[in-house]
Design goal:
The chain contains 17 helices and 14 strands. By secondary structure, the protein is an alpha/beta fold. The chain folds into two domains: 195 residues, Rossmann fold (3-Layer(aba) Sandwich); 191 residues, Glycogen Phosphorylase B (Rossmann fold, 3-Layer(aba) Sandwich). The strands form two sheets. It has an eight-stranded mixed sheet with strand order 3-4-2-1-5-6-7-8. The chain has a six-stranded parallel sheet with strand order 11-10-9-12-13-14, sandwiched between helices. The longest helix is centred in the N-terminal third of the chain and has 21 residues. It is globular and about 65 Å long. Keywords: Transferase. One of its GO terms (molecular function) is hexosyltransferase activity. InterPro entries: Glyco_trans_1, Glyco_trans_4-like_N, Glycosyltransferase_grp1.
């Protein structure tokens, strides 16, 4: 039985696709160990039941989990920096004393890329192949999130990234544009070891009717106030546009309150499901614009509940901050939306726009352009949103983002 060591700062109960990838590897007969941190994303504090002295080791769906100490990210830039560096520091000491044996190291890189130093050291020490799956490009992501552009900070990060890429035997990325970005760096990366491997969506992301969505959601135990929200969502006759997931600055959700104001008396409401660093500011913007009646806010939900809530809505929304980096990105939520057969409304360009146009599954407007977004929503093709876009989204998903197809592909590299 081949053994895979996965390095990822975030893992179950945090909601990232690596959770399902690891479960699938277990189902395919691999012995999987995950080195991760104490869960704190996106709330910024340790999850209930977890801590420096709680649940540091556990087995989840056959995946062996080792949690090393880190500083929770909090809600300040300093907290985020401490979080980013505490994990690799703990990993350094873990590497000195670990007895974990692996045939491969697989690094699932969402920010911070500093976590990859743990995998590089382990693979070098034990002379095993090192694989990297890039979700966030560094140092570009650092500059966007922190606003820091000083060469004194960025150049050392750039050199770290060069060393990590050089150490890897194979590098997988989530979009064709990411392939170009990795290969064309200042220090050239061998193009033969860089592969486009898009994200899939878990099997529970599937199209549901409105009645199925309500029935399934109400079968689960949950807070009565949230269940009441879901019932009201079912009864709401407006055109409902859903956003799910992390509510961060990078998601560019500041466009929505402005758009809602421009929509005026239009029978449109935005359903925001999730949590994150930008949520409190978003609520302030909604209040300032005087559009509280246009928004339905639902707290973070288990990923398995998202298809049920989406089924009660008419379209799903994607947006970004206005930076070049995000035009290179295919966000994981796009696959989730398409798997659920949701028409897409996006304030996005580049790769996201390409997929939506190829699939003919929705509409795209300029990033951060509230005027254009409001106009597009008002002038939407009602028939296409009801009958065509959702079907097209699911068909494109099955052709390009099918889980079995993509997991079979990654299997070919474990030889």
């Amino acid at each position: 039985m081949k053994k895979i060591l996965v390095i990822c700062q975030y893992f179950y109960p945090e909601q990232f696709r690596i959770n399902d990838i690891c479960m699938e590897w277990v189902n395919r007969g691999y012995d999987v160990t995950v080195l991760t941190g104490i869960p704190n994303y996106p709330q910024g504090k340790f999850y209930k039941g977890y801590g420096l002295f709680k649940k540091r080791r556990e087995v989840w769906n056959g995946v062996k989990i080792i949690r090393i100490p880190l500083i929770p990210r909090g809600h300040t830039p300093i907290g985020l920096v401490l979080n980013y560096f505490s994990f690799p520091v703990s990993g350094f000491f873990w590497n000195l004393f670990t007895k974990v044996k692996a045939d491969y190291v697989f690094m699932f890189e969402t920010s911070p890329m500093t976590q990859c130093k743990i995998g590089v050291r382990y693979a070098k020490k034990h002379k095993v192949p090192l694989y990297l799956y890039v979700q966030d490009l560094w140092p570009e992501n650092v500059e966007i999130v922190t606003g820091i552009h000083s060469p004194l900070v960025i150049k050392p990060i750039d050199r770290m990234v060069d060393k990590i890429y050089k150490a890897c035997d194979q590098i997988f990325v989530t979009s064709p544009s990411f392939v170009k970005a990795v290969v064309n760096r200042r220090v050239t990366v061998d193009p033969n070891k860089v592969h486009y491997w898009p994200q899939y969506a878990e099997e529970f992301y599937e199209p549901l009717t409105k009645d199925e969505g309500l029935e399934r959601y109400c079968k689960h135990e949950c807070d009565e106030s949230i269940q009441e929200q879901i019932r009201k969502l079912y009864d709401d006759k407006s055109f409902k546009i859903a956003f799910t997931g992390n509510i961060g600055y990078a998601q560019g959700l500041d466009v929505l309150p402005k758009t809602a104001k421009l929509l005026g008396d239009s029978n449109v409401r935005f359903v925001i499901i999730g949590d994150g660093r930008y949520k409190s500011r978003l609520l302030e913007e909604i209040d300032i614009c005087g559009v509280s009646d246009k928004f339905i806010m639902i707290d973070r939900q288990p990923a398995q509940r998202i298809p049920e809530i989406l089924a009660l809505c008419d379209a799903a929304f994607i947006s970004f901050m206005d930076t070049e980096l995000f035009t290179w990105t295919i966000p994981a939520k796009l696959q989730s939306y398409m798997a659920c057969g949701m028409p897409i409304i996006a304030a996005a360009k580049g790769e996201t726009e390409r997929v939506i146009k190829e699939a003919d599954c929705g509409i795209c407007t300029g990033i951060g352009d509230a005027d254009e977004l409001a106009k597009a929503i008002k002038q939407r093709d009602v028939t296409a949103f009801k009958h065509t876009y959702g079907v097209n989204a699911r068909e494109y998903f099955e052709k390009h983002f099918d889980k079995k197809m993509l997991m079979d592909e990654i299997d070919t590299h474990f030889v």
